[in-house]
């Protein structure tokens, strides 16, 4: 009897050991990092290096650019988001959708150094007094000049003001033997950086006040839109549209092909030029100012954040710290073909991180940049109405004041609607 009891006890002991061993969690807990797929993913995999040093694994999943926003939002709404996301769309836009977890507690607990980032980029990580993202990389805009065109015309200076741009542009216009426009000095409505926007900023434009009143019909924006309209009218709208119809990508780009002598472009463009027209003789200078104002630029940011409802936020933060630190930022820029500036100011200034033509100009422009996320709760609507208003003024000869007033009303309606939704969602989350 005693022997049977003893045998039963031994059986129970080993059963317990086997059971607890089977139930013991794997020390290499896996978390998911959804990265916007691109060329850099094949050159640099931060998760591999992190996994070799960590007690848990990070799996990087590349999401195509055309699908990433929909996939991420769907995952968040379904309650099964990844642990980390990388994005380029403004942090404020994502935070205003209640799609991100605030990072303040992790920043405070780990004494995370936020001073290492460019101030403009760090400020853009904030929404409603909290931090929702960590900036990784960025681009900066500056003014490109085709030096051969300047030499051809005997022009010995590069423009510092928009008045000079306008005067120089008149001298650079050429037509072919059939009377078609084949070169302009500058086109204020060409590219992804709107001249009307930068001039309005330089004039002191404030698109929204502290009470969330949209200010889109201001005298500053009216002056800016009128300047663009008059500039194009001097060349001839039909001529401009005909010339722009010949533009494309690669060697058909307006500046690369030599059809546009001056243009606002971003810091990735020297690499593009070297690929499609390496013999192009060009200079890069600060964006011209308007009537004694200071130069102004804009910048977007690649950032990482933790989506709302992530299952492993603390582990996600450990990986975010890893990929944002100085050494890994240098490693990334050295290993990839991406012509990006690090959001870490020290790294951006270090020559060994990445050789970038005219890097000093781009960095100086980054320091005077403004965020493209002007009205976060109506971000898409703002730029939709902005584009529509500019096209109506340029192409339809519509009254500037009237057009801007209509756009202002539409943006305000969208903002008011979005505020109600945001307040509702925020209240529901507090009730849980």
Structure, described:
Helix content is 47%, strand content 13%. The chain has a 6-stranded mixed beta sheet with strand order 2-1-3-13-6-14. It is an alpha+beta fold. It has helices at 2-23, 39-43, 46-51, 68-77, 91-96, 104-109, 119-123, 147-152, 162-172, 195-202, 219-235, 237-244, 269-276, 313-324, 326-335, 345-349, 359-366, 379-396, 400-431; strands at residues 30-36, 57-63, 84-87, 126-127, 130-131, 134-138, 141-146, 174-175, 181-183, 262-266, 282-285, 297-298, 301-305, 341-342, 369-370. Residues 1-27 have low confidence and may be disordered. Helix 10 crosses helix 11 and helix 18 runs antiparallel to helix 19. Strand 8 (174-175) and strand 9 form a beta hairpin. It is built from 19 helices and 15 strands. The protein folds into 2 domains: 30-139 and 299-370, Periplasmic binding protein-like II (D-Maltodextrin-Binding Protein, domain 2); 141-298 and 375-420, Periplasmic binding protein-like II (D-Maltodextrin-Binding Protein, domain 2).
In total, how many beta strands? 15
> What spatial form do the alpha-carbon principal axes imply?
globular
- Can you give the helix content as a percent range? 40-55%
How many domains would you count in the coordinates? 2
How big is the Rg? 27 Å
Largest sheet: 6 strands, mixed
What do we call the CATH homologous superfamily of the largest domain? Periplasmic binding protein-like II
Q: Order of strands in the sheet with the most strands?
A: 2-1-3-13-6-14
């Amino acid at each position: 009897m005693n022997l049977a009891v003893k045998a039963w006890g031994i059986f129970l002991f080993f059963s317990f050991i086997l059971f607890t061993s089977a139930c013991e969690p794997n020390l290499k807990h896996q978390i998911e990092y959804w990265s916007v797929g691109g060329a850099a993913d094949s050159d640099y995999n931060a998760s591999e290096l992190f996994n070799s040093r960590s007690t848990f694994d990070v799996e990087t999943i590349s999401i195509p650019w055309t699908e990433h926003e929909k996939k991420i939002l769907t995952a968040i709404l379904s309650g099964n988001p990844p642990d980390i996301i990388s994005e380029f769309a403004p942090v404020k836009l994502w935070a205003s959708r209640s799609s991100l977890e605030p990072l303040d507690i992790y920043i405070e607990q780990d004494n995370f150094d936020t001073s290492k980032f460019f101030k403009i980029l760090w400020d853009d990580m904030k929404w409603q007094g909290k931090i929702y993202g960590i900036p990784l990389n960025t681009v900066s805009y500056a003014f490109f000049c085709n030096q051969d065109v300047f030499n051809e015309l005997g022009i010995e200076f590069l423009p510092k003001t928009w008045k000079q741009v306008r005067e120089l542009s008149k001298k650079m216009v050429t037509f072919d033997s059939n009377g078609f426009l084949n070169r302009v000095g500058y086109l204020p409505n060409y590219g992804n950086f709107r001249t009307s926007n930068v001039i309005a900023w330089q004039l002191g434009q404030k698109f929204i006040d502290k009470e969330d009143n949209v200010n889109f019909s201001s005298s500053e924006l009216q002056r800016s839109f009128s300047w663009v309209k008059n500039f194009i009218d001097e060349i001839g709208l039909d001529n401009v549209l005909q010339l722009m119809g010949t533009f494309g990508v690669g060697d058909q780009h307006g500046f690369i092909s030599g059809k546009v002598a001056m243009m606002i472009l971003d810091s990735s463009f020297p690499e593009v030029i070297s690929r499609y027209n390496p013999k192009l003789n060009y200079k890069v200078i600060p964006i011209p100012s308007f009537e004694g104002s200071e130069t102004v630029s804009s910048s977007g940011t690649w950032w990482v954040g933790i989506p709302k409802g992530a299952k492993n936020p603390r582990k996600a933060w450990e990986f975010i710290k890893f990929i944002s630190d100085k050494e890994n930022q240098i490693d990334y820029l050295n290993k990839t073909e991406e012509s990006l500036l690090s959001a870490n100011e020290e790294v951006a200034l270090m020559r060994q991180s990445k050789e970038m033509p005219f890097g000093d100009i781009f960095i100086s422009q980054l320091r005077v940049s403004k965020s493209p996320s002007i009205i976060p709760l109506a971000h898409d609507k703002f730029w939709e109405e902005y584009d529509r208003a500019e096209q109506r003024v340029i192409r339809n000869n519509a009254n500037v004041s009237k057009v801007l007033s209509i756009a202002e009303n539409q943006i305000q309606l969208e903002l008011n609607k979005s505020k109600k939704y945001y307040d509702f969602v925020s209240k529901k989350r507090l009730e849980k």
